[in-house]
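Sequence only, no structure available. Ideas?
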Amino acid sequence: MERLVQDARFAARVLWKDRGFATTAVLTLALCVGANAAIFAIVNSVLLQPLPVPHAEQLVYMYNAYPGAGVVFGSSGVTDYYDRLKQTDVFQEQALYNTRGVTLGGEAEPQRITAMIATPSLLRLLQVQPIRGNIFTDADGELGKTHKAILTYAAWQAWFGGKDSAIGRDIRIGGEPFPVVGVLPQDFSFLDPDVKVWIPVAFTAQERSDDNRHSNNWSYVARLKPGRTVEQARQQIDALNTRNLDIFPALKQILINAGFHTVVQPFQEYLVRDVKSTLYLLWGGVVFVLLVGAVNVTNLMLVRSSARMKELATRHALGAGLRRIARQLLTEAALLALAGGAIGLGLGYAGVRALSSFGVEATPQGTHVAIDATVVAFTFALAAVLAILIGLVPIVGLRHMNLSQAFREEGRSGTAGRGARVVRRVLVTAQVAFAFMLLIGAGLLLASFQRVLAVRPGFDASHVVTGIVSPPAARYKEDSQLIAFWNRLTDRVRALPGVQAAGTTTNLPFGGGYSDSVILAEGYVMAPGESLISPYNTSVSPGYFEAMSIPLKAGRLFTASDDERAQKVLIIDQRLAKRFWKDQSPVGRRMWKPESPGELKDGPGPKSTYYTIVGVVGDIRVTGLTEKEPVGMYYFPFAQNPGRGMTLVVKTAGDPGTIISPIRQQVREIDPELPFFGVKPMEQRISESLVSRRTPMLIASLFGGIALFLAAVGIYGVLAFQVGQRRKEIGIRMALGSDSRRIFGLIVSEGLWLLGVGVVVGIAGAFAIRRAMETQLFGVQPMDPVVLATVAVTLAVVAFIACAVPARRASRIDPLIALTDV
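Reply:
I predicted one. Tokens follow.
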């Protein structure tokens, strides 16, 4: 221990004496370690840590998929739930749930909150116990008994000051009283941290009936029994689906053609599906940054140890063995790495806060990302590994070096050993290769992002503001009341100064929700093996298409006359028109919606509803700019198919933000209990949809820039050191007739040779990781030649500049001074 302390003190004095080197090394390591700490903190919380639920590994998620009909990621239906309750034995609990916005309060200050609407079994499934009151019972899931509420801890504190008297008191949700029956623990959170209240759900006989099969509107989670596996659950669900196909032959071939199946997977795997590959890709990128930084510091250590040969030779001559000298070099490396790790933790903390915009807060435990004990341990373990790595190369070099010979050569300013030069060149080549791979990744993500930005959504988002109003069922029971409310509100909004157009929709593009359902053209005969399609659909009012600037391609738009008393009509997009009518005009043709499974096989029945197509509009993107090509979209007139929660869409002549307050005033004047919430400009919604692509691109670009800088420093450092070591050789060359231009070319060519080898190795590495990149790209191939060429040219320019500085210095060496230098 005493020797260790002695070594540490001596190492600290040596490093303090060479503060320039120490500062450079520590900052380089801090930057690399900090980036790794930040990314690891997110990966650890989101991907590696289990959900904050007892025995989270037992939870599975299930959803129905119909890829042939255009539904790859679906949800589940009520009939699925009751089928599986009776006909499976692998689950100890099953539950359906959805989050939903509800209006809280009365006339004074109504506010919009998020509620968890679920079967009473969900809290039992999650094995959570209330800190006050009780959880729901199965009786609370019966019709007429669902008006009860369980509060989250935050809601309990905010609304009742944390008082026990909250139990039994009412809160008003949607204008109706809901008695509070329980309070959840402070540390409990399930998926959405914004949820304030839990409400039980009950299902009608119609919702449970066979006619409601494949009407998928719910999220479905289950807990496996101890000892049961996901594969066993998948086998039982597949068997149940197969039996149902035989029980309902009218649906069998249709579902087979649609590719119907139920996906069963671990719950956490499902929840992180959208960010998993991106986070691992970023983690891989930051590891490359770490490697570049470690190589850079190792090269600095190697150069510094070569420059210290006189000192090391003197210590060896005075009796210090190679092991003692190696231990001293390793101690210095350890101090550098630990200092870099400590500063890196601070940078990692800042990085975690900066990365909150990545959208991980929407994932399990995404709101709890922090520099915790695990991250601290990881960071210092990383620092310890770095200490060994950056100290090992100079130490290995010492084992093959004659220190007494080095002492004599140092006095004559001789050149360094061939082995040391080879090692330094290999390290620089590795730096260039790693930097090239990172720049390729950043370049591909940048090119991909540019392709995404070039995608046209099919509407004009400029000067458009959107917001939601949801009249409660307690006071707006009839469709006529809803229609009257919205007609009155849109008329008032259209009369506001600066408003060019206004309309409403039940499902706003880029709004986070959508609806899809099967629709068929009258007289259309499907080819053998052809699948039904389930296009997006929404109800819109007159003025919606004008406000969104969705172009009319044929026919007409909806008008006020398309009300509940008029003929049922539709507007479809160009995709549906092309699918069903090829090059013919669909205007005036009819489509129909099946009312029962039997109609899918036998055709329209007496209860089938026909809709006459009155217009064709342009195609739009619904869920995002990068969504796979949807199968189509159709629109109902709002007055014929009203919805409760509607989004108001307003096109203004100027800044859309200036119209928000007047709209709120109009809502208050019509109904003081209704909030106008979820207000955002349409451009902001599009921008937010790009966060999952923009943030990785920016981070990768940052990593690539750091790696490029470190590689340039590495090339410069090696060439500068070589110039210093080869002063006598350069002097001899100039004395024998070489001019400054040739000396300049000699040094630059050595640097560019290192660059060329590094680029070749980097291309091979980029080819090896191309599959990992494919999932993150849009409209760009993993080995895009334009990106490869651009990165190569950029790296070559930076490398040339790094080479030019020491080359220029070499070309100005005075041969007389170089030859007489001792």
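The first helix runs from residue 2 to 17.
Hope that gets you unstuck.
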